[in-house]
Design a protein that fits this description.
The protein is built from 3 helices and 9 strands. It is α/β, with parallel strands linked by helices. It binds inosinic acid and magnesium ion.
């Protein structure tokens, strides 16, 4: 039987390397948001693993919320049109919001999401992404918290998918068709 992850040709970050970096970001957020009770927003589905680990590495009071966006492109490229398939469950006016994303690639997704949140006038709005691919940026989106900067490769695992698959790999690997 063919290995289900045969197309994952290289491990970019091991489970242990991810955990060390996630702990560092959690500690940083805990220092920066002490006393602010931030609302940490998980952008589904890709950020789910990162979000769950990151929040458990934060040592301050905080609240959780979820939103879901899809761009319905091909498996490795966004279509450019962002659909909001699940909105936040609450108003964010006056809140310190931290958006937690899996990866900042072209910036198309965040470029569409940020204005939607800003109209509600949060007290502050920060973005935390586990990964970023600076070489592919098309919109000027900047991250307040960034896990790893990676080259222009397609990665899967730890929440990231190729056509819906591989999200449950515990590491981040390079997908080769
Ligand atoms: P952007 O809108 O181009 O910045 O892309 C953001 C979304 O595309 C991410 O939230 C991911 O869902 C997806 N994406 C971009 N690059 C990758 C990758 O290397 N692996 C898996 N998903 C990716
Ligand atoms: Mg995706």
């Amino acid at each position: 039987m063919k290995k289900w992850n045969a197309h994952v040709t290289k491990v970019l970050y091991t489970q242990q390397q991810i955990q060390i970096r996630v702990q560092e970001i959690g500690a940083q957020i805990s220092r920066d948001y002490d006393g602010k009770n931030p609302l940490m927003v998980c952008v589904l589905k890709g950020a789910c693993m990162f979000y769950a680990d990151l929040l458990r590495s934060c040592t301050i009071p905080l609240e959780m919320d979820f939103m879901k966006v899809s761009s319905y492109g091909t498996a490795t490229k966004t279509s450019g049109t962002v659909h909001f398939t699940m909105p936040l469950s609450q108003n964010i006016t006056g809140r310190h919001v931290i958006l937690v994303e899996d990866i900042l690639d072209t910036g198309t997704t965040l470029h569409a999401v940020l204005p939607r949140l800003r109209v509600q006038q949060p007290a502050s709005l920060a973005i935390c992404a586990l990964l970023e691919k600076p070489a592919r940026r098309q919109y000027p989106v900047s991250l307040q918290y960034s896990g790893f900067s990676i080259p222009d490769v397609f990665v899967v695992g730890y929440g990231l998918d190729y056509a819906g698959q591989y999200r449950n790999l515990p590491y981040i690997g390079v997908y080769t068709p």
